[in-house]
Structure formats: structure tokens, C-alpha cells
Amino acid sequence: MGKLDYGVVGNCRTAALISNKGSIEWFCFPDFDSPSIFSKILDKDKGGSFELIPEKDCIISQKYLEHTNILCTTYEMQEGAFEVLDFMPRYKIGELNSYYLPPELYRFIRLKRGKPQLTIRYNPRPDYGKETVFHKSGPSYIKTISTKNNRNTIYLYSDLSLQDIMEEKCFVLTGDAYLMISYNQKLIKIDLTRVYLEYQRTKVYWLDWINRSKKFTLYNNTIERSMLVLKLLSYQRSGAVLAALTTSIPETIGGTRNWDYRFCWLRDASMSIKTLISLGHKGAARRFMGFIHNVLKSKQENFQIMYGIRNEKILTEKTLPHLSGFEGSKPVRIGNMAYLQKQNDSLGYLMDVIYYYYMYFPGTLDEIEEMWEVVKNIVKSVSEEWEKPDNGIWEIRNSVSHFVLSKVMCWVAMDRAVKIALLLGESGYVLKWEAVAAKIKQDVLDKGWKEEISSFSQTYDNTELDASLLLMEDYGFISSSDEKYIKTVDAILKELMNNGLLYRYRNQDGFGKPVTAFTICNFWLVKALFRIGRINQAKEIFERLLTYGNHLNLFSEDLDFETKEQLGNFPQAYSHLAIIETAILFSEEQSFSRFIRP
């Protein structure tokens, strides 16, 4: 089992990482991008945590309640057994289908047998571990107050002795109990009856959400878990989709490729939303379209590659030197200066999902017209920028190049714009936009293909291979039967495969050479092999990759070539959307084969 042995619970406002021992070790409060109150994952001493510690030898196991994002951790010991159900409330309320998603986390403790003993360690450390706290007892809660800012408060409710919790005394569990952290003081009575009601309401919400999803003949459980992860990474209030929940989980232990992923990249979000649409969930897509409207408030707005979850445009990056980092990997960063980068591929993914919007769930006339203005704005940007170098999909810092995939995705933007114009009956734009698309495509074929390596190359100016080239077929730029694509797949398989996993590229960037496998690239390879007809080889690699998830089948950004341990920010939207897309290929192939007679 890897180092990222965590489950995640959340309610589309924020989320917490809970270790396989039941310890909350990452929790940003009250929102995804708020400073953490528990960050032991980034510093075992200073970060703070919320732990349930059995007093005797204990076997601990963990699973999700089936079809939900409710995490169950079970503690079995000779004296007795109990389980902890961790969840954050989420469900519909009122006639307008609004959602109840308070900033609070419940730990519902259920006695299974005997009289087990445990200690509770409640150690919040606000502002990424910078601040210490003091506690003040209320009538039914403990109010925790920052020593640096007395307005920075959180509340702990429990039916266990609050004084014993603070003193870390041992409890003998004689019945069900609860613990609940809230950002706000509760104005209703919190007791076991209320806890049970919140638990059941949240459970029913997730069951209903999954029930509305498309079902598959193969890998349905795998697809379902990844869907639930993508849902947790969406921010209800704005429609933004986060790349991951964490910051600064390194790509390699001791390395410096440590970034904050609690933001909305147009690329990652568009891919995630397209995947959710294909599974029957249009609500998240509608909210994301609203997010796009809000970041582009006028026709004069320029596109960024990424935004804050509330549409923020300035994402200043800084380091937190007081934290030792994950497994000692410094620096710990918050914010992300990549927002200043030029990545010409981003608008291709966005236009692709806008095309899906028009195809499957166009809104009211005013919304359709507003989105059409966004389309024309994207076309204008692509037309002006596609011939210029950029930082590329991998966000290479301190240098720009003519990345082949960036050009390909500029073609995608123009191709989908043409299709949208035809859908809307705006044929006057078609010839002009088709001409730009054709020019981009020819440019890629002329400058991106390199005979000396029998493959498309990473950039116009080099002969390096890049796993992102596998996406050329996925977005319709080139056919899976085209000899040039097949040769590119073969070249990538030969040159980038290492010990059963794939490099994204091998050449130097601003931080040296990559030393871990980028998880999503491996699933791109599986899809490419499937599409060129090597289905058995693709399936063998896919099933091996699935074994590298953690004990709950959650995936991060990277994998270690030797140990296969997970690294990088967690859980990663990119990785989970690729799992879904790849699993669907095999499931649909199986469904189709039932109608073929020998």
C-alpha cells in the first residue's frame, strides 16, 4: 500500500482526507481553498490532526458505504469493536432544489460489540499550522480560538465528555456517540437523533446521485468510485472544478515539484465536465458553464489557463517555510503562479465541452446567446495566438516552445467552433473558421511529424517524445488507422515506458528530468492501444494500473516507477476522469460484442 493511504469525504464545499487509521490529516475550512485546520499530511508535528486512537491492539479496516462518499473505518479488538462513519452533510432542501452543504464534518461512532476503549486527539492548528489555539467550553460545545486572531474560531460538538476529550483521557465506549466539527455555532440542538438524520439524508443524496448515473457491463464499481471523486471536486457555489484537494504533495519524495492544485484549470475542469455529461450528470456541467460566464464578464476579457474557485484571477504563489512538507519534501506552496502562463491548448478543451453543451443541454435563449459570444471570443483568441509558442500542457516554467499538442488543441477549438456555428445556423462564420482549422492542421502535419523518429514530436523544434501526443486521435485530429498515429503510439510505448509505467516525457525542463510516472498518461496509452486495435494489450495494462490505486481505489497524480507508490496531489481529477473514460471503452466493447455472431 502506498504513502497516500487516505479516504476523502466532502460536500462540494470542502473536503477532508482521513487516513487508513481514521485520522483527519488534511482539512481546509470552511472552503476547499481556505487555510487548513488539520495538515498533519504536510507536517507530522505542526500540522494538527483529529484522531481516534484505540487503547489496545486493534485491527483497523476502511471502506466506503456502497454507492456513497461516506467513509466507514472499523476498529476490531478483543474487548470490543466500533466503527466511525465520516461524512459532510449534503442534500437538497426546499422547493427550489437548493442544497444544504454546511461547513461541518460528522464522525458518527457506532458500537458494534463489547466495551472498546479509545482516546480522542483533537488538535486543530489553524492557518496551515501557523497558529496555536485555546479552548473555551460552551453549554454543548468546545469553542476553539486562535491565539493570533480571536475571530478565527471553530466548534466541536459531542455527546462524549468534552473535558475528557480536551485532556485526551481514555473512553470506554458503551453505546453510539458522535463528534462534529462546525465552522459556525449551531442554532439547533445537536444530539444523536440529529446526527442520525444528517447521516441518512446524506446517504440518500449519494445513493440518488449514483442511481441517476449511466451503468456499465464491466468495471462499473471502478467507474462509480471515480465519478464520486469527480463530484467531490466540484465547488457547488460557483461551478468550478478543482484539479485536486491538496497542495504540495510532491511528484517525488524530496523533490521540489510541489504545487497547489486547489484551483480550477480550464483544461482539467473541461475534461471532468465532459466525462460527467457522458455519464448523465448535466447539473455540474450547467454550473461550470455559469462559472465560465462569470470569469468572462465582458467581450474584452482575456482567458487565463486557471482561476480561483470563486472566479479569482490573481493566484499569488508563496511558500510556507514553517512546514516540513510531505515526507520532508519542501517547499510547501500555496497559490500557483502558473496562472500567468500561456497554454494554448486550454481553449481547445473548453470549446470541446461547449460543443457538448450545445449538443445535449442548451439553456435559455439568453444563455445560448451569451455562450455564443464566448465561442466567438475563444475563436478570436485562438486565431491570434495559435502560431505563437507557449508553456504547453505540462506547464513548463521559464521557457516556451511550439508544442505539438498545443497546436492540435487549437485545431480542436476551431473545429468545434465550426460545428457549433452549424448547429446554430450561423453559416456565415463557417468558411472563415474552417480555413483557420485547415491551416493549423497542415502546420502540425508539416512541422510536427519527424521522419527520423517515425513519430510526431513534443515540439516543432525537437525530436523528443511526449505522452500527450496520444490525445491527437482522442480529439479527432487524426484517425486511429492513420499510419503516423500508429507509429507515434509505438514510439511512445518504446521510448517512454519504464518498468511498466509511462513517462510523460524524458527531456529536461526547468526542474530537471521527470523521475515519476504521470498517472493519466498511462491511461492515455491504454486508450490509444485500444483504439488502434490492440485490445488485449490495452486491457492487460489497464487492469495492472488499477492495482496501483490505494486501499479505497483512489488515485493521485503520479506513480513511483519502482515501488508503484502514489505521489503528487490527491485525489486527482485528471487521473479519475481518465479511469472512467478508459473503463467505458472496455465496457462498451463488451456490450457491442454480445451482438456479434461468429
Kindly summarize this structure in a few lines.
This protein is α+β, with helices and mostly antiparallel strands. The strands form 9 sheets. The protein has an 8-stranded antiparallel β-sheet. A 4-stranded antiparallel β-sheet has the order 1-2-3-4. It has a 3-stranded antiparallel β-sheet with strand order 5-12-16.
Task: Tell me what you see in this structure.
- With 598 residues, the chain is of the alpha+beta class.
- The chain folds into two domains: 205 residues, Beta-galactosidase, Chain A, domain 5, CATH 2.70.98.10; 382 residues, Glycosyltransferase (Alpha/alpha barrel).
- It contains 15 helices and 28 strands.
- Strands 6-7-8-11-17-15-14-13 form an eight-stranded antiparallel β-sheet. Strands 1-2-3-4 form a four-stranded antiparallel β-sheet. The protein has a three-stranded antiparallel β-sheet with strand order 5-12-16.
- Strand 7 and strand 8 form a beta hairpin.
- Helix 13 runs antiparallel to helix 14.
- The chain is globular.
On the 0 to 100 scale, the average pLDDT is 94
The CATH architecture term of the largest domain is Alpha/alpha barrel
* Domain count: 2
The total of beta strands comes to 28
Question: Alpha-carbon distance between the termini?
Answer: 43 Å
Keywords:
598 residues, alpha+beta, Beta-galactosidase, Chain A, domain 5, Glycosyltransferase, eight-stranded antiparallel β-sheet, four-stranded antiparallel β-sheet, 28 strands, 35% helix, globular
Question: Topology of this structure?
Answer:
Blueprint lengths: L5 E5 L4 E5 L4 E5 L7 E3 L10 E6 L4 E6 L6 E7 L2 E8 L3 E3 L4 E3 L3 E11 L2 E7 L2 H4 L3 E5 L3 E6 L6 E6 L3 H5 L3 E3 L4 E6 L9 H20 L8 H13 L31 E2 H13 L3 H14 L10 E2 L10 E2 L13 E2 L11 H15 L4 H21 L18 H20 L6 H18 L1 E2 L4 E2 L14 H4 L8 H14 E2 L2 E2 L14 E2 H13 L3 H12 L11 E2 L6 E2 L5 H21 L5
Antiparallel strand pairs: 1-2, 2-3, 3-4, 5-12, 6-7, 7-8, 8-11, 9-10, 11-17, 12-16, 13-14, 14-15, 15-17, 18-19, 20-21, 22-23, 24-25, 26-27, 27-28
